[in-house]
């Protein structure tokens, strides 16, 4: 089944039905949504508030969401306790590099699977689909052994290379997208004498911006929050990404809650900014992943 | 399943001279296409071959060996698979994992579908709500687990302080063997609710309006409309969310690693955690590989069963 992204699917346009019932259901909806939003936000507020409290305030039996005074020095302590700035930088660097590679190579491979004909193409594609059913766990031990064999333990290579050349899933998404573009585009260009490279570069690539943005956002989210693999291949504090850096914090400062929560806040901020700027793509990316069904 | 649609190919050998010229042109074009096809796929394929296909093959091989990562792997036949049957810890971890799945999936679906239904209308501030539900999705599981560990703190945590303020005694959420799994379920549901909500929302928006109008003309009330229009047309999304949730819940790791370390005792030791410990604490690589393949078989069978019993009733489209 091919993916068809209906432009209207994300549009909040449902004309109200009978007015009387719609008022009641509207109130119920608001109550439900507000409770849900509160449940989602409260732990984050608690996290932020704890990160700004003194330790006497934290261990008090009458807690309040508002700290007595905003103790920003907790954040200074955080950046002094572990190489937090370096970890932030590592996370940004690894996430951007991997995403750049993923998008590039999923795009080219997806294009080839969708629009170019070559012997063995369909068998190869079935192989790709097959790998998508294998859980990551299966490859964990051998992938670690391969990285160790290459001497990449405790290097950026271990974090970047395995994902850099694109995933089967990303290729699948891009292929489905390229399939939806009209054949006429290609025919016209072929008659004008354009080769596959020019057609890809000049005609198809400019049309893929939404799909690329979606894939990129999806990747950024995944790589930024990745835990298990970095935990396995990185031990050096200076090379740690934020999630495993935070886990290290927790091991070292198990009871220093303001420090731990400050770390959690810092790890959240970059994604929060990305989300505010690209909310549309976050949401569409997820909706798109469901179209696979 | 994915179907590859081939544009009708033109036979290259044609008698007329004009067509013969076009034929050679097409022939050249085809070779050029094949060249670029391989060139475009090469980096992606090599990456996947080295870090996915090769590991899959090695993993299968390793599962028949005993290997500690120091000496050479030693072939032991089906030993690892036989040993799994007698590994009480493995069955405990499998039971814990299944318990997590059985609790979190229905709860997660109910919560995310409820929110999606509430959001599926014209409302003021819809973007604010959506952003709020999405915050747990974009936060890393590590940060989420750290926050919730603090929320669950038996003395100074937000939850117990709140419960005590309304007269309910606080609980040891993460150290009571009976409560630890439900506590983890709550975190998992909280984390994934926004994600599944977006999926359900997309499913809801794809249902044509006129079906509701027709149902209304027939005198169907809100519940009947939900039961007879919304739910049946939402089955593909429901199916997808369920399949993905099952796969996801069998791969729970981060939250357990950060929040409980598998404890108290082995009350929250999940399958993935036990596999991790076997591989990277006890260096039983062969055994861990065999465990991974058992999981693959479990997930594969679970998906097949769902496709057979639920997938068959999935209504993808309505005329």
UniProtKB/TrEMBL annotation, chain A:
Q: Cross-referenced CDD domains, in alphabetical order? A: TM_PBP2
Q: Has keyword Transmembrane helix?
A: yes
InterPro entries this protein is in?
MetI-like, MetI-like_sf
Q: How does it sit in the membrane?
A: Multi-pass membrane protein
State the Gene3D superfamilies in the record. Answer: MetI-like (1.10.3720.10)
Q: Name one GO biological process term.
A: transmembrane transport
Chief place of localization: membrane
Domain called ABC transmembrane type-1: residue spans: 88-278
Ranges annotated as spanning the membrane: 27-48, 92-113, 125-147, 153-174, 203-224, 259-278
Q: Where in the cell is it found?
A: Cell membrane
Q: What UniProt keywords are attached to this protein's entry?
A: Cell membrane, Membrane, Transmembrane, Transmembrane helix, Transport
One cellular component term (GO) for this entry is: plasma membrane
Q: Which family does it belong to?
A: Belongs to the binding-protein-dependent transport system permease family.
Record's protein name: Carbohydrate ABC transporter permease
Q: Which organism is it from?
A: Actinotalea soli
UniProtKB/TrEMBL annotation, chain B:
Please give the GO cellular component terms listed in this UniProt entry. Answer: plasma membrane
The protein depicted here goes by the name: Sugar ABC transporter permease
- Give the originating organism: Actinotalea soli
Domain of life of the organism encoding this protein: Bacteria
Supply the InterPro entries for this chain. ABC_transporter_permease (IPR051393), MetI-like (IPR000515), MetI-like_sf (IPR035906)
Entry similarity comment: Belongs to the binding-protein-dependent transport system permease family.
Which keywords, in A-to-Z order, does the entry hold? Answer: Cell membrane, Membrane, Transmembrane, Transmembrane helix, Transport
Instruction: Give the main location.
Output: membrane
Q: Where in the cell is it found?
A: Cell membrane
Give any single GO term for biological process.
transmembrane transport
Where, by residue number, does the polypeptide cross the bilayer?
A: 35-62, 98-119, 131-151, 179-202, 233-253, 285-305
The record places domain ABC transmembrane type-1 at 94-306
Pfam families noted in UniProt: BPD_transp_1
| Membrane protein topology class | Multi-pass membrane protein
Q: Which residues form the signal peptide?
A: none
